[in-house]
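Lecture notes, part 5. Sequence design as translation. It can be helpful to think of inverse folding as translation between two languages: the language of shapes and the language of residues. The source text, in structure tokens, appears below.
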């Protein structure tokens, strides 16, 4: 796995975008031997940073046709969610509109195999430019979204603006309605989420490989 693009003679590469250093550490330490080129890109926090970083990475060179996965941590919106649960988006929503994710059902199955025993939620993943708390969480839930983060919507929208490609978003819940980050137990929840994020990486490879198979 690479920190930065490197030439590869294989099929279209995979770009995994995350915002934080701790997320990149989890994703890189979870590497179990990717096939072909896989790049983990730390974008920095927020939609603007995500947009700049992704557009820059896809501007040319070996990553120009890469499939893109937005990953990292998120805040769950649905009651009953717990730190360490997984969110596989069927679409991401941002100020510029919604982006439909590629082969969500296949990715859900791959995630469930990679992290057995963990709850996997599927639905809309909405974007925000700040940390969401209290009444804002309820308002976003009322729109039908199941989770929120600051980068996924901008990441996928930017990826598609650079050219057609498969896109997906998979996040690990670190903050939920009954388990907000400001409460006691945050550290335990964070460690749990880190371990899940590290373990889910093979699911991205499986999803990516399936997209490279010839269609019949």
């Amino acid at each position: 796995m690479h920190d930065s693009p490197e030439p590869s003679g294989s099929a279209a590469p995979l770009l995994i975008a995350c915002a934080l250093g701790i997320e990149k550490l989890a994703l890189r330490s979870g590497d179990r031997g990717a096939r072909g080129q896989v790049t983990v890109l730390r974008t920095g926090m927020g939609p603007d940073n995500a947009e700049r970083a992704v557009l820059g990475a896809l501007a040319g060179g070996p990553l120009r046709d890469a499939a893109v996965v937005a990953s990292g941590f998120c805040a769950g919106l649905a009651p009953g969610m717990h730190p360490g649960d997984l969110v596989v988006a069927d679409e991401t929503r941002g100020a510029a509109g919604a982006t439909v994710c590629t082969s969500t059902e296949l990715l859900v199955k791959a995630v469930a195999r990679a992290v057995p025993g963990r709850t996997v939620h599927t639905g809309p993943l909405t974007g925000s430019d700040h940390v969401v708390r209290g009444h804002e969480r309820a308002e976003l839930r009322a729109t039908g979204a199941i989770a929120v983060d600051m980068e996924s919507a901008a990441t996928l929208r930017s990826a598609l603006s650079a050219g057609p490609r498969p896109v997906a978003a998979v996040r690990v819940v670190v903050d939920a309605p009954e388990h907000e980050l400001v409460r006691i137990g945050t550290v335990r929840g964070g460690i749990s989420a880190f371990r899940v994020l590290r373990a889910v990486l093979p699911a991205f490879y499986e999803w990516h490989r399936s997209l490279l198979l010839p269609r019949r």
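The translated text above is only one of many valid answers, since several sequences can fold into similar shapes. The two ends are 31 Å apart (CA to CA).
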